[in-house]
Input
Amino acid sequence: MILDAEGSVAGRLCSYVAKQLLKGEKVIVVNAEKAIITGNPKTTIQKFIERRERVHPKYGPFFPRRPDLILRRMIKGMIPYKKPTGKNKFKNLRVYIGIPENLNGEIKKFSNKNITNSYMTILEISKKLGWSD
Output
């Protein structure tokens, strides 16, 4: 299953992907940087910055800056990763920035209702965290 994350709410997309992984499907998510997180942009950025500053530089927990890894970690939090079945299911997930050229198959658009609230894309968040292309 190939899902396009463009314009979709990240939390809803991640919960759907986690459910598909637990069913045993292989899931590929493309355009991870174009997924959105709704809410006030200032508080959203502040939450991500606090999370990154809370870590011990040597021992973790480590929080990503890249958009594909941010989305991957969100999905990881929605499956029982510490159990062997969760680890095996998580291996069936691939997340990409953009659309890879060698990707074969029909790309399914993950649909959401119209968003009227303020929001930020994951790309904007990762740039504020210090990620550079």
In short: The domain at 2-128 is CATH 3.90.1180.10 (Ribosomal Protein L13p; Chain: A;).
